[in-house]
Design a protein that fits this description.
2 domains, 447 residues, 20% strand, five-stranded mixed beta sheet, 14 strands, 34% helix, alpha+beta, Ubiquitin-like (UB roll), Creatine Kinase, Chain A, domain 2, 13 helices
């Protein structure tokens, strides 16, 4: 705390944004004058915000999940997760906080603590995971009426994109004001961005992050989403992280590259220069774990009703559990690389996923794969989408598989899994009550 106070006083900070990611990955918290934060420390928050649905609702099981009195939870600021707020009108910092019970233990329903729990399992095994996320998003014209489909915004040319522009330099250049502002915001917040490209969708972009510590990268993705939205608003349009915002364009993913180091030596345990392709048996077991446990945890990669619109044949998202070498049609891809950079890319997570939960899920799956020495089976050669769809196509179907493996549930946290299941099932049932325009169009007078 003293380290944070020294920074606030040194930099003349006037306001502190005390943030924590909720179950959906959205920022919740309070704005506190800096002098009050210095005098009184971090504020408290009601426990109920940990188990809100994406619509802000609570389930019928609400008081089975949290204290019936809706008591306060204790927040503790993480000095490694303090960043400026470059768009604020006065000197402001945002600090990501961890949630604790009154007993002093980590709160089991806080998503940041779920990732910490998985990282503790790696530490107990003498291992350190390394990740590098790739975050896709769309720029869209401001849309204040949800009855109307989203459209691409106009760039500096005064025209809207009307066709896919994968890797187009000119398409990115058309939004140069936004890109320049985004990079300046990221630099001010020490977000380790790497490469920005135009993806295959209309006004769809992808930004890659430098590889590093999983908790730090989850924090950066959490802050980055907010940053992108702010930069877009300043330029007169929206940015969306919906998994499938437009009918005729591909969805947006958050692919996660991952490798594992020996904590003592710092060596990549996926490397074995004496083996075929330079990859160790542990890498194959890791892939085996991804294949085995993705059906259980796919609701962490695809957490919303809209998420499952990504998973359709002939769309650039995985629809089965195939793995392969440098094969982008597979769910789990081992890229061509030097032996030291041996890694696997999980292509299931959508960009709408809570980054803490998506990283916890993929790392937990890989660790159990190595511990159980799960054989991944033969790798896929050729297009993987030619095989049958093997993943859930609805949120409800995905939730039915969530509690299938007791060891996996324990690694994630049984209390959190129970809460997540209840909240996401509530969202499914709320959506399931909505009668869509498609149903009125095709069923009203025909069935």
């Amino acid at each position: 705390m003293q380290e944070i106070i020294d920074l606030l006083e040194r930099d003349g900070i006037e306001e502190v944004e005390c943030l924590m990611p909720d179950l959906t990955g959205a920022p919740r918290g309070k704005f506190v004058p800096a002098y009050k934060f210095i005098e009184e420390g971090a504020p408290k928050l009601p426990e109920s915000i940990l188990v809100q649905s994406v619509t802000g609702e609570h389930t019928e099981q609400h008081f089975d999940l949290v204290d019936p009195t809706d008591c306060d939870i204790n927040l503790r600021p993480d000095p490694t997760a303090i960043r400026s707020v470059p768009w604020a009108s006065s000197p402001t910092v945002q600090i990501i906080h961890d949630c604790y019970l009154k007993s002093g233990q980590r709160h089991p329903l806080a998503s940041r603590n779920v990732l910490r729990r998985v990282l503790d399992a790696y530490a107990d095994a003498g291992l350190q995971p390394v990740v590098a996320p790739e975050v896709e998003f769309y720029l869209v014209k401001k849309n204040t009426d949800s009855d109307y489909p989203l459209e691409p915004p106009k760039g500096r040319s005064g025209r809207s994109q009307s066709s896919p522009q994968a890797y187009s330099i000119e398409a990115v250049d058309d939004f140069s004001e936004f890109v320049d502002l985004l990079y300046s915001y990221c630099e001010a917040q020490n977000i380790d961005t790497d490469i920005l490209i135009h993806e295959s969708g209309t006004a769809q972009m992808e930004l890659n992050f430098l590889h590093g510590d999983a908790l730090s990268l989850a924090d950066q993705v959490f802050v980055f989403k907010r940053t992108v939205r702010e930069a877009a608003l300043r330029c007169g349009f929206y940015a969306t992280f919906m998994a499938k915002p437009m009918e005729d364009d591909p969805g947006s993913a958050m692919h996660i590259h991952q490798s594992v180091l020996d904590a003592e030596t710092g060596e990549n345990i996926f490397m074995d220069e004496s083996a075929e392709r330079g990859h160790s048996q542990r890498l194959l077991h890791y892939v085996g774990g991804l294949r085995a446990f993705t059906p259980n945890l796919i609701s962490f990669y695809a957490p919303n009703i809209n998420s499952y619109r990504r998973f359709a044949p002939e769309i650039s998202a995985p629809v089965n559990l195939c793995w392969g070498y440098d094969n982008r049609t597979t769910a789990f891809r081992i890229p061509e690389s030097s032996p030291e950079a041996s890694r696997v890319e999980n292509r299931f997570p959508g960009v709408d996923a809570n980054p803490y939960l998506a990283m916890a899920a993929t790392l937990a799956s890989g660790l159990l794969g190595m511990q159980r020495k799960i054989d991944p089976g033969p790798h896929r050669e050729g297009g993987a989408n030619e095989t049958a769809v093997a993943v859930p196509r609805t949120l409800e179907e995905a939730l039915r598989k969530l509690k299938s493996d007791n060891v996996l549930v324990e690694m994630i946290g049984a209390e959190f899994v129970e809460a997540y299941h209840a909240v996401k099932l509530l969202e499914f049932e709320e959506f399931n009550r909505v009668i869509t325009s498609w149903e009125r169009e095709h069923l009203l007078l025909k069935v």
